Amino acid sequence: MPPRKIIIDTDPGQDDAVAILLALASPEEIDVIAITCVAGNVPLDLTSKNARIICELAGKGNVPVFAGSDRPMGRALVTAEHVHGKTGLDGPDLPDPLMPLEDGHAVDYIIEQLRAHAPGTVTLCPIGPLTNIATALQKAPDIAERIAEIVLMGGAYFEVGNITPTAEFNIYVDPEAADIVFKSGVPIVVMPLDVTHKALVTRARNDAFRAIGTPVGTAVAQMTDFFERFDKEKYGSDGAPLHDPCVTAYLIRPDLFTGRHINVEIETQSALTLGMTVADWWGVTERAPNALFIGDLDADGFFSLLTERLARL
């Protein structure tokens, strides 16, 4: 099978960085057409800088990187420096990128690529707020039927929320955008906190990254060293969850994941539950399923894959 063509839409973020590295290390399965950036974990100027830093760390300075939306569709931007540090990539000391940002807006590029490729051949992989994807769907409704699949990190059901009591960060930042995406009719696979919180970087797993002995292995170990302090204190867990790499791991080894095809709606009105992914896990409504909602993964298989692929870079 030829590699799957994808566009990674991202707001790096240490775990975004690992997701990008995993994709760039897996050319047999994944063809990264481009990386499009959105404001989220940190503002757009930093997310678009960080994406290029990661490409150069991987030795892939030829991957096009586009800047996109600098704020949600109808709200003020909420960021997460308290988790990721002031740069979004705190931990390793990585040089500023030499590769330039591409000309043009990420949203226009997404539309252009979906129209240029045969229908059903490009997968969108949003691992940040869904602003760019929703804006593209609004601006060019014809692209919906051309998207092979949207595989995204966002939301939660059993794990409820990580930025509010009921909302996961990516969905909370732009719930209106998430609502548009989930109502688009495009096939969707969701990596919620329910599965990403099972992808924990324990000390042994982080030691395995460091033992790779390359700049990539060392940087990934330093990234997880940095942001695990937040999750250990918050959840009392054995390490930091690698949220976003679940998306790229699913593209490579879907057999590592299990879930249910269910209905998912986005709360956009309530002050109490804004950004909640109302997931009908138990099938108690008559709402039609619109997403494969992942609930579990083989964590050892996931980290074996990740360590093996990172060692290629």
Verbal overview:
This protein is of the alpha/beta class and 313 residues long. Helix content is 37%, strand content 18%. The chain has twelve helices and twelve strands. The protein has helices at 14-24, 44-57, 81-84, 106-116, 131-139, 169-173, 175-182, 193-196, 203-211, 215-235, 245-252, 299-310; strands spanning 4-10, 30-37, 65-67, 122-126, 147-153, 188-191, 200-201, 240-241, 257-262, 264-266, 277-279, 291-297. The strands form three sheets. Strands 3-2-1-4-5-6-12-9 form an eight-stranded mixed β-sheet, with helices on both faces. It has a two-stranded antiparallel sheet with strand order 7-8. Strand 2 (30-37), helix 2 and strand 3 form a beta-alpha-beta unit. Helix 1 (14-24) runs parallel beside helix 11 (245-252) and helix 4 crosses helix 5 (131-139). The radius of gyration is 18 Å and the shape is globular. The mean pLDDT is 96.
- Return the average pLDDT rounded to an integer: 96
- Largest sheet geometry: 8 strands, mixed
Shape: globular
Helical/strand content category? alpha/beta
Number of helices: 12
Series of secondary-structure elements, N-terminal to C-terminal = EHEHEHHEHEHHEHEHHEHEEEEH
Gyration radius, in Å: 18 Å
> Between the first and last Cα atoms, what is the distance in angstroms?
23 Å
Number of strands: 12
Question: Tags for this entry?
Answer:
313 residues, alpha/beta, 8-stranded mixed β-sheet, 12 helices, 37% helix, globular
